[in-house]
Amino acid sequence: MSANTFGHLFRCTTFGESHGPAIGCVVDGAPPRLPLAEEDIQYYVDRRRPGQSRHTTQRREPDRVQILSGVFEGVTTGAPIGLLIVNEDAKSKDYETIKEMFRPGHADYTYYKKYGIRDWRGGGRSSARETAVRVAAGAVARKVLGPDVIIRGAMIQMGPHAIERPRWDWDETANNPFWCPDAEAAGQWETFLDSIRKAGSSTGAVIEVVVEGVPAGLGAPVYGKLDADIASALMSIPAVKGVELGAGFAAALLEGPENADEMRMRDGEVTFLSNNAGGVLGGISTGQDIVARFAVKPTSSVTGPMKTVNADGENAEISTKGRHDPCVGIRAVPVAEAMLAIVLADHLLRHRAQCGD
């Protein structure tokens, strides 16, 4: 199986399966002499950890991160940084009754057609469990970016219920289990998701990530565009089905003068009067906030019977057991932040390599 590495100069290679002994990653390209400890990484991994509320999977994983290499006496050495998270609460028996059937909406069928074999224990390599080590790698990437680059994500829509932007409060994202910046919407979502969960169903979501402090000049034409790599990073997250930057698809509704971000000089610096571009023009960062949004589909594992086929080519019905997120978008927020950090750290190093600043 190829394509387990993301990035160019700052590279993250992940390994492991949902119900295997452990998951892990190797981060290569981190500059030497960066202060790094397991606690620095653990903070971000804990934000993604399952079982923290009734609204996420009840799989109980401590997700303790171990640094295996690349750090000595509290700083990075420039060598590959090995990170490991042991799986402690896998229940493979939940999947034994359906191991010969393909779950609708999952990668079971496509993995089987490509490789001729699949790991039926919770989806194996295709499971969102793999994203825990992406978050760990993202913590290293934040060290490369430094404290002036601030990456924050929020859920802005659950199912058909969207936030009211005038009520946006970043501090509120820490006060509810949905990363919701709108306290009133968070209360509505709780009732909505309770009803979805009790019905054995699931719902989708829209996530927005905003990055402040990105310098102008990151990214490269024609095939190294910053926004293209951001889109690739976000689309690589399990269950993501659409990505947009800035005005995104709404730009199709605008006329040229409305969409163009006009410029003025202010205190000797170029400033923009709007940010429909989402902080990227021509594949290169403008110095404005980078704003990206993505849509997450409903969790495909539901308790009700669904039509499927089995490995013998016979029609069947399937009901998925196990512990699943009624809205997988909740735990996608810290994953998205991590992927943005990895992309930006990679482009920062690439920019320094070519331009020397």
State the share of residues found in helices, binned by percent. Answer: 25-40%
Structural class: alpha+beta
Task: Pick out the low-confidence regions.
Answer: none
Q: What Rg, in angstroms, do the CA atoms define? A: 21 Å
Query: What is the number of beta strands?
Result: 18
Tally of contiguous helical segments: 7
> Please, what is the average pLDDT?
93
- Biggest sheet: strand arrangement: 1-2-3-7-4
The ordered H/E elements are EEEHEEEEHHEEHEHEHEEEEEEEH
Distance between the amino and carboxyl termini: 37 Å
Strand proportion, as a percent range, falls in 15-25%
The biggest beta sheet is recorded as: 5 strands, antiparallel
Please state the overall shape, judged from the principal axes of the Cα atoms.
globular
